[in-house]
Amino acid sequence: MMRTLLCFGDSNTHGTPPIMTRGETYRRFGVDTRWPRVTASILTDWEVAEEGLPGRTAQFSDPVMGAHMDGREGLKIALQSHGPIDALTIMLGTNDTKTRFGATPEKITAGIAGLLDIAMSLEMQARHGGFRILVICPPPVLEQGPIRSEFSGAREVSLQLPGLYAALAQAREVEFLDAGSVIEVSPVDGIHFEAEAHRRLGAAVAEAVARL
Length: 212
What we know:
Layout: E1 3-9, H1 11-14, H2 35-42, E2 46-52, H3 71-81, E3 87-91, H4 105-119, H5 122-128, E4 132-137, H6 154-159, H7 161-172, E5 175-178, H8 195-210
Parallel strand pairs: 1-2, 1-3, 3-4, 4-5
């Protein structure tokens, strides 16, 4: 019987390549490259639903990109759009480190906790007949490239997230994967993943989901 995995995240779940110039036209890696599709190719008895939105945060309404960037509402919609699911991955936090939000590592982690509150609620668990959760901490950002001004001070914040995410996952009794132990962001823009990083992360997620 096929099982269903819902991958919830931002542009790195969507498959946005590294940004080379500000204001460039929309681009997206193909299905043979995006990490959720790589995961699906390995987990042949799983269907994978991709729910990656470029710019999405764990908790903030973005004054530039819009209120729909708040992952809390997005997760509610995703969990009611797909189903039943058997597992959920959440990889968010990179956009929360943007300078305009002024968020501490603890505040960003609290945003992930809010998403877990939604996913683990009686309503959502009952809707899907119960599902497991894998929290993925994104790799630390680099303050370089064409969008570096939006992430001033972000590296210091992002370096503190793996330990905080891991502690949260342990407290909530969900699984955890530190993506920074597997891949690095591209030096081109300091935020997004190169194709090879997508392939490595997809394999790591497949291994983690198989253990759920």
